[in-house]
Specification:
This protein is an alpha+beta fold and about 350 residues long. The chain is built from eight helices and 21 strands. Helix content is about 20%, strand content about 40%. The protein starts with a strand and ends with a strand.
Length: about 350
């Protein structure tokens, strides 16, 4: 359990939050300037709040009332800031060894063996990010702080980096706080999310439920499964036994675990018999909830245990008589499913 209670005046507002987090991966979500990075800097010991208390497990890192304030090097936290802060005049090996003894499992996970002798200045942005993450893990942290680690990466490198973070989460079981303003990334990686707005907690809970309710968050359906088969430019993604959808062939081999994103705007909702249509995916579902979001209607439907969301107009809501419990068919194209990580 992680306890964060702090107050700190900033330039445009006061950071004032009180949250308790689990031991998995927590997303800090919100627009730029909402206080996300300031929270990480306080946790790391780089900034001192005016008042509050920070506890990780049984260890108190900061308590204004009890006058406890551990120095950054005493906190056993791994911090990867946006600019990664590698020492540019050192090699990759030297940067890693400064954090701790080299670990074969860490080197393998981040594919760093071929890079050990190279200088930091010769690395690409994605390679620098891998070295920074590995360096943070080599300190054997009790908590890993990641400040927008996917920012500035192109789509392909972003996919690889997100898949790498999923691997870190699975293989090392280190609690993480992941700062991002990308709702899809948070859904893919995090077990819970805290939404910040001008230094205060606006919402907290399961990522899909919380982010779907945030106006303008860029929410997408996240579809997790494995590639069951591939042929003629398309592939079958098995979401759960007996439930498969068709996606554009991402070039992955059968059995590969994969995560796809699907915009709610790309999901059509139908009732009754269907005419011939080009959409390859037709899933029977039952409406779970209906919610208005900034003038648009968000329909969440249950399809054999998998929840999918769709946006519809108010006219469509009334014409189709959509309400909780109503049976519908969800339709979407294979090409509307975007590969996020594999």
């Amino acid at each position: 359990m992680i306890e964060i209670r702090l107050e700190l005046p900033l330039t445009e507002f006061a950071l004032d939050l009180s949250v308790e987090l689990g031991s998995g991966c927590t997303g800090l979500f919100g627009p730029s300037g909402s206080g996300k990075t300031s929270v990480l800097e306080i946790l790391a010991g780089w900034r001192k709040p005016r008042s509050g208390r920070v506890r990780v497990g049984q260890d108190v890192l900061f308590d204004a009332g009890a006058r406890i304030e551990l120095r950054p090097e005493q906190r056993s936290l791994g911090y990867v800031p946006q600019d990664v802060l590698l020492l540019p005049h050192w090699s990759v090996r030297e940067n890693l060894e400064a954090a701790g003894e080299l670990d074969a499992r860490v080197l393998e996970t981040f594919e760093l063996e071929p890079l050990l002798a190279r200088g930091v200045r010769s690395l690409s942005g994605g390679e620098r990010q891998r070295v920074a993450l590995a360096r943070a893990l080599l300190t054997r942290p009790r908590l890993l702080l990641l400040d927008e680690p996917l920012t500035g990466l192109d789509r392909e490198r972003r996919r690889r980096a997100l898949a790498l973070l999923l691997s870190v989460k699975e293989r090392f079981a280190v609690p993480m706080i992941f700062v991002s303003h990308d709702a899809t990334d948070v859904q893919v990686l995090c077990d819970e999310v805290v939404v910040l707005e001008r230094g205060r907690v606006r919402a907290q809970g399961a990522p899909a439920a919380v982010l779907a309710a945030q106006p303008g968050a860029g929410f997408e359906n996240v579809l997790r499964g494995h590639i069951a088969s591939a042929s003629e430019g398309s592939a079958a993604l098995e979401l759960r036994p007996g439930l498969r959808i068709e996606v554009a062939d991402p070039g992955l081999s059968s059995g590969t675990a994969a995560v796809f994103a699907l915009r709610g705007e790309d999901v059509l909702v139908a009732r009754g018999p269907l005419p011939p249509i080009s959409a390859r995916n037709r899933l029977r579902a039952r409406v779970h909830s209906v919610r208005e979001d900034g003038g648009e209607i968000w329909i969440e439907a249950d399809c054999s245990g998998v929840r999918l969301g769709a946006r519809v107009t108010r006219a469509a809501l009334h014409e189709l008589e959509l309400a909780p419990g109503v049976e519908v068919t969800l339709l979407f194209k294979a090409t509307s499913c975007r590969l996020v990580a594999a």
